[in-house]
Amino acid sequence: MIDYFGMIFETANIIRRISMKRFFVLLILFLLVAAPALAGGVTRVEGGIGPRGLALGGAYTAVADDVSAFYYNIAGLSQVEENFVQLGSEIIFPRFSYERPAGIFGAESESKFVNIPMPMAGVIARLNDKLVFGLGSYMPFGLGVSNSESWRPGKNFRKSLLGLGNFTAALAWQATDKLDLGLGLDFGYAQLIYKAPLHQIGEAVFNPAFLKNEGDGFGASFRLGARYRLNSKLTLGLSYSAPLKATLKGKTAVQLWGRPLFEDEFKTHVQFPARLSAGLAWQAGQRLKLVFDADWYPGQPSGLRLDFKHLPTIVQKLDWQTNFSCHLGAEYRLNESWKLRGGLAYLTAAVPEITANPVIPDGLGYGLTFGAGWEKNGWTADAALCYYLADRRVERFTGNLMPGRYQMDGLVVSAAVGRKF
């Protein structure tokens, strides 16, 4: 029997000594194999941004009365009667585990403990009785996984991060006594980190060849919003954010059995999905408000094209699916200063089974949230806590990259302070 792994190891020793042969071998690898699939998992499981929206389970499109309106519905900025500034952050504590089916390449993995800060800030200024202008920054997409380092079969999926930070300039107009409209321009900063095996075919993962991609870049897009007061108790909200295409540049490092093989530069484009949201707010009583949202994210049947400076161009499969989320929340006013909030969220998966792998945290997700808000003498303070979980089983069908069971859960802590002036 031919010792293929011995041959590969001997080849690795040779190409470490001779740079031209090193590049040639790597060139052959890139021409003959496809790089690992990089897929969705970019949609926030809990569906909420900012402590008010998060505490309501993400059901905020028809409310949107603070800085998080830049994300939910910019038409909501017109509700601000005084100039307003707000600063806050979320901290996400994700946990992820993966278990492959029993077999020669069977393995289990668990993510390392990490915390991911997601800051939010903005200022809103009333120009006149009808117009409000605002500037805000927030992170609408992004999450990742950091696994422990291992060269065991099935466990060499190290780290992923695909995130977007937006800076939005928006204008809201009170068109009539019942209708508010909004327009915003988004300027986004995107970051990509993906560390995983180079070669994957169904159940087979070629762990010795390891790829590290790190890059960042910018893009631009727009968003639209509307709020319509049906009557004194019901308000309808509609919001659309266009897809944002970011151009990223970065570096790729390839290793063979943990030893450096070659480095190159790459350029690529990442398109973050559009979002269409509809929300309803019902003032059910003097103190109680009930809210509901439904969000839709269109799929993107395409690939991630990596154009290298020296290596051949490769295309990593994406095929994001169309997915949706539902959000339900309630707010109860205790007195003039205090409000209590709670909510539920449900989100379907954007990553298809065929490209699911241990560094893409996606699946059917559920979120349970609660929080509180305080306001007095022009100051506001809000806080929220969310627990989310997701579970997914990928069967051992032909073409599925990494079959097995994927489990995710985590906590999200959010707080913000605001000042009217």
TrEMBL record:
It is a multi-pass membrane protein. It comes from the Bacteria. GO terms for molecular function: long-chain fatty acid transporting porin activity. Pfam families: Toluene_X. One of its GO terms (cellular component) is cell outer membrane. It is found in: Cell outer membrane. This is Uncharacterized protein. It comes from Candidatus Buchananbacteria bacterium RIFCSPHIGHO2_01_FULL_46_12. The lineage of its organism: Bacteria, Candidatus Buchananiibacteriota.
